[in-house]
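Dear colleagues,

As part of the handover before I leave the project, I'm documenting each prediction I ran so the next person doesn't have to rerun anything. This entry is a single chain, and its sequence is reproduced below.
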Amino acid sequence: MKKLIFLVGMALPVLALAQDPVKDKFIRELMSRMSLEEKIGQLNLLTGGEATTGSVVSTDVEKKIRAGQVGGIFSMSGPAKIRRAQELALQSRHKIPILFGMDVIHGYRTVFPIPLGLAASWDTGLVERSARIAAQEATADGIAWAYSPMVDICRDPRWGRIAETSGEDPVLGSALAAAMVRGYQGDGKYRGNSSLMACVKHFALYGASEAGRDYNTTDMSRIRMYNEYLPPYKAAIDAGVGSVMASFNEIDGIPATANRWLLTDLLRKDWGFKGMVVSDYTGVNEMIDHGIGNLQTVSAKALQAGTDMDMVGEGYLTTLAKSVKEGKVSAAEIDAACRRVLSAKYDLGLFQDPFKFCNEERAASEIYTEKNRVFAREAATKSFVLLKNKNGVLPLKPGRKVALIGPLVNNKENMGGTWAVSEDRSKSVTLLEGLKNTGAEVFTARGANIYSDPVLDAHAAMFGKTTGRDNRSDREMREEAVAVAGKADVIVAALGESAEMSGEASSRTHINIPENQGELLKALVATGKPVVLVLFTGRPLTLTWEDEHVDAILNIWFAGSEAGNAVADVLYGKVNPSGKLPVTFPRNEGQIPIYYAMKNTGRPHSGNPGFEKFRSNYLDAPNTPLYPFGYGLSYTTFRYSAPETDRAVITRQQAATITVSVSNTGHYDGEETVQLYIRDVEGSVTRPVKELKDFKKVFIRKGETVKVSFTVDVSDLSYYYSDLKFRAENGEYEIMTGPNSAETQKVKLELK
């Protein structure tokens, strides 16, 4: 992994960006001819209605386009439809083209694993390529703007949108954020027609919502914000992302959409961001319910804070002209926002060719190609995390009869997971299809619905998807499944969440496998046959019973278009699983929030088994998670040496090389992600017990030993102090390496 240094809050001098005098002249002259109302029109982003994330749907869209009252449209796709809308825009007085966006989150028509699953690959090259393919397909279908990457740090798995994140860690999240931006935007020049403008979201702290409830309040100290939550956003900015989306939550008591410190002081002044800021879906209007003003007031506050485009709510369109007349907003503030919107359109080449992304031939030949599906299958296999494999039950032996049981074994609609708004669900490969493609003899039964309760089952089926609910009783389905299992040598139980049980507005207070599915699993285990749990999930689940009683657990997240084939590849050993958890799995909900980079208290638990009075622990459960951050098994085994350093003392001009030997001691070739953590033993402010600083994914043949080296310098030992200055103090540090955050060995390093 390329080393990333995040100076997220320091008011460092920003390097002057190369000016484009031709562009500046063009935009200046265009704006000189525009009326105030036409400038405000450029700040209006409407929905085309194909996919919505709120209750408001835009009306009179065509009329507003002709009147020059629309700057952008999202959720409209297809070259023919976009061409027609663009032709309407060219009937407006200044013929300003429209910017077309879409929620391209983990693929376009070809769908890759959900972002949390992609993060489990710990493979920045693979993640970048997934974004590159998504950009090629989306632009072939007329899209020039993707609302991705979503880089919010999340340490509360009750929050449904953890599925869209890269997990809990700022270093892993930052590396993947930068990779996604590079994949979408290419070199950022948009010279061809296969790169689009990315939009990093949700700025900021959205993943820290209280109680894990979506859209809820967020509050934290600045020191924590700078050290733990802001780095992935900054990584996207440094990678050249073209736009930023404001988050729904408040920061320091002010909603992000109207937070001038966040959008202007930090983002533009300190970080030097020159691009465009857009609100989230009706994010401007929703500040009324936050309690900071009526529609005119919140619209003015959002504009003054630095929000350039108003998504769907039309508060800008209907109130800003009045606010200018009343002196509540200046014409200069509207000019600044309009200039940034027009600049994005210019950079994308839309003024030179409004139909740049309207190519019917590309749409027919570059979307959902066989090559893209092959990559989707590879990406899926690399996202799977093997959580348990008792007595080597996996990989499955060829010729064994398989009972494939569960509510999602043959449901195409749920393979892609949440936020796959453009997928062609009819072409997704189910688990049943994937296993049959191997030639295996497969018996199948549903066994259970997603939920026994029809109301909860309906909640698990949104955005046009269904769970394929069966109206038989739980007992009938369970008895049928047990009878089918009796015909087989091994049971594969495909259980967990449906696609929309995680994602936006899908928070859960209990993050277990639903009870009726759990009863099915117990009945299958009671048969005495080997049971492999293939786990569908968009979040960490509580799996204490499953871990104790099931023979093997393969967490497949939601794997995308090629889910079934990819699962078969791993179950039968064609691919050796190599995924590692990007987020901690708790034992129970009472441990939440739980994450690896926690701090010690003044009365820490000793680490020995059992409860300790007057120590920081629980009466009824250990402090430790069920599966730690960075954890993941393989069909082979790896042995780590203790890390070694080429120098025990470094200075601010020197670096140390940390080397660890990793041996493949098993019977299969495999990939292993070697992780490096640090701890400041004695500092002016308290630090976590360990923090990820680097990682490398290496391929090791069976019987082979490889040496993996990391460079550690002063930047790795630096962090933000209470004064929000980024620095390192002289003193002792612990450098740790290992296969996950819980199993590490250490070496001492001193900074002088």
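The first strand starts at residue 44 and ends at 47. Confidence is low (pLDDT under 50) at residues 10-17.

All the best with the project,
I.
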